[in-house]
Design goal:
The structure is a homodimer.
Chain A: H1 21-30, E1 32-36, E2 41-43, E3 51-57, E4 60-65, E5 71-77, E6 82-83, H2 85-90, E7 97-100, E8 104-110, H3 111-120, H4 122-148, H5 151-166, H6 180-187, H7 191-204, E9 207-210, E10 213-216, H8 219-227
Antiparallel strand pairs in A: 1-8, 2-7, 3-6, 3-8, 4-5, 4-7, 9-10
Helix pairs in contact in A: 5-6, 5-8, 6-7
Chain A binds a DNA duplex through helix 7.
Chain lengths: ~230, ~230
DNA sequence: CCGGGAACCTGATATATATCATATTCTTGC
DNA sequence: GCAAGAATATGATATATATCAGGTTCCCGG
């Protein structure tokens, strides 16, 4: 259960890989592993975070409650991603809530260890910076999509994204199972609209369903839709 | 015209302030100052940037062309801000275009100098990181606003933002003069819709105009609108 | 295996916003 | 100071999407 960070393969995928042996030892000695069940939250918008969370398994949705009472999902974070980094660096309370989409296992790393390395190890700092630069680009792209694409296009794009990032099973169904409500909250639309469009895609032969599972049957048509044809 | 960075007051407002004396000297020796006239671009989406641009005067709009042919303005950058940093750090081509909203003066700093400092000076790297963390938070907030607020709310918010960040003259007109089209592109709506809503706000007594100048006459009402009343 | 609650689905209708068309007003170069 | 083009304004209409209301299906705990 509580293995050593030095051996942890997850680390290879995030900025922790730029840490020195000693730093990793420090992290490993102070970290604690937590199991988060589906639907539970890791932290909430407004929380003061005492550290960051390294995702070992499962997927988390990062969302923010709007004044109209709806939750906007800003990002999905899977294995290898580090949550709470931005807030710790900016010394602000959390701007987003992190809720488990399925059962998760995360490692909590106290912020002191991270901050210490940020001040002493330029390689690590630079690595964190590179990741954040990447996140910022993605966020900018989301802004453009949100304001310039139709709901239909955004839903099509969401499915392509889910396929690309989380894959599908042997039968061609998406591995990451999101509720229609979650998809609606990613895309920024009403749940009913989302359901309606999924039905339409099914009728058109772009998607298939089996129980709650959803699979892509016409990748190209979805892509064309996103590109505006 | 071409003054020394060591004396430049602008620097106080951005991450360059964390540079050492020697680093600043290096920047100053390699930088070049450029004048950009209103409407001209500093760089375009897709350009390979050879360095970053430190804004000494004027305001730039950072925008991205969507597949539907519309320009979405993602951010406005004024005196003290550094443009192109994200692309240089991520070693990617520019994701956004930077166009001058009014006459500008910028300093071009070759990327080698920046990258060199990023690898050697943890204070500087951390400072850049903090700025980027801040930008990322703002971007996340924009995503939520874009998808959850009405056009009317977003326009109201835009005016409050312009007042807060760029101020107003003695008569109460906004100092930063944006065209209706630009405002529409910030907010992500059609120019006609934007004009219509501005007219409505004028009729309601929230705004006043004089030629192309726009002023806020009822701050509270606009704020209430944004908050959903 | 059954009952009940949650998730999903569909229809009718309301509403916000985009689009198209045209008029008016500014602004800028000559 | 005027002509011409750009920016602003406004009306009519189309369309996408939200909202409300009532279903059906799924799935889990007992």
């Amino acid at each position: 259960m509580s293995s050593r960070c030095e051996q942890c393969i997850i680390r290879k995928f995030n900025s922790l890989r730029a840490m020195s042996k000693e730093e990793l030892k420090k992290v490993s000695d102070t970290k604690s592993t937590k199991v988060i069940k589906k639907g539970e939250s890791i932290f909430e918008e407004g929380d003061k975070l005492g550290g960051v969370y390294c995702v070992r398994d499962g997927v988390s949705k990062l969302s923010k409650l709007s004044s109209n009472g709806k939750d906007q999902i800003v990002k999905l974070a899977a294995k290898g991603e580090v949550l709470g980094q931005r807030s710790v660096i900016a010394e602000e309370t959390a701007n987003l809530s992190a809720v488990a989409v399925n059962d998760m296992e995360v490692c909590f790393i106290p912020k002191e260890v991270i901050i210490n390395s940020l001040h002493k190890n330029p390689d690590f700092t630079f690595e964190v910076l590179r990741h954040m630069a990447h996140d910022l680009r993605e966020a900018d792209d989301v802004i453009v999509n949100m304001s310039q694409k139709t709901v239909k296009q955004r839903i099509a794009e969401a499915f392509l994204y889910l396929k690309k990032n989380y894959g599908e099973d042997e039968e061609g169904f998406l591995l990451l199972k999101l509720s229609r409500e979650d998809i609606a909250n990613v895309v920024g639309t009403a749940t009913e609209s989302c359901i309606r469009i999924i039905s339409e895609f099914k009728k058109n032969g772009y998607l298939k369903t089996k129980g709650k599972k959803i699979g892509i049957t016409d990748h190209k048509k979805l892509q064309d839709l996103v590109d505006g044809f």
